[in-house]
Amino acid sequence: DQQVKQNSPSLSVQEGRISILNCDYTNSMFDYFLWYKKYPAEGPTFLISISSIKDKNEDGRFTVFLNKSAKHLSLHIVPSQPGDSAVYFCAASLGQAGTALIFGKGTTLSVSS
Amino acid sequence: NAGVTQTPKFRVLKTGQSMTLLCAQDMNHEYMYWYRQDPGMGLRLIHYSVGEGTTAKGEVPDGYNVSRLKKQNFLLGLESAAPSQTSVYFCASSWDSSFYGYTFGSGTRLTVV
Which residue of B has its CA nearest to A32? Predict the structure, then answer.
């Protein structure tokens, strides 16, 4: 059973507009949530994270929102740029020693100029 | 540059052949991981290690073995390759299992024919 779900395989946005990528999870024990960005032929790179005790974390153009009651988080990119075109993975952690991140299937973002 | 190095970057195997993928990190991280990425499946954990001399199974461990004889190296072995193991393999390392995220290598593209 998938614990981290990204139900939108792809998203297309115009340059300058907002991109909203969504992620749902099923395990209420997750302690941290992270977003990774992946370009073709490269490894994923860490983008932004949020602790379960917070509902928002902002870093420049990137903001992650967490709604624990709905078991939902979203990544907002404002304004979107063509260089943001990539695959975005949502990941969750139990925050316990000896465990590993659980990733969603990813959402491919395309930003057109 | 500090980071995670994977070798080789590309490999084609015949069914039944064996091979070892090498991952090396120079950040003194305790934790190391092997993931595979397949279209529409996201990143799935194969095996991981929480320290030198330790290994643990992830979500999809069958057909793979691992070893962590030195802290900086994490080896992934395929004893008898199968076409279902055609994938892109990513190694990652981290300080711990939660908030700080992982540093990924650039991947190994393996094709089993």
Answer: B99
For residue range B42-73, list pLDDT tens digits in order: 899 999 999 999 999 999 999 999 999 999 99
HEC per residue, A35-89:
EEEECCCCCCEEEEEEECCCCEEEECCEEEEEECCCCEEEEEECCCCHHHCEEEE
B18 touching A, CB under 8 A? no
For residues A34 and A46, the answer to whether their CB atoms sit within 8 Å is: yes
- Neighboring chain A residues of B48 at a CB cutoff of 8 Å: 100
Q: Measuring CA to CA, how many Å separate B110 from each of A61, A107, B3, B22, B87?
A: 36, 23, 21, 13, 6
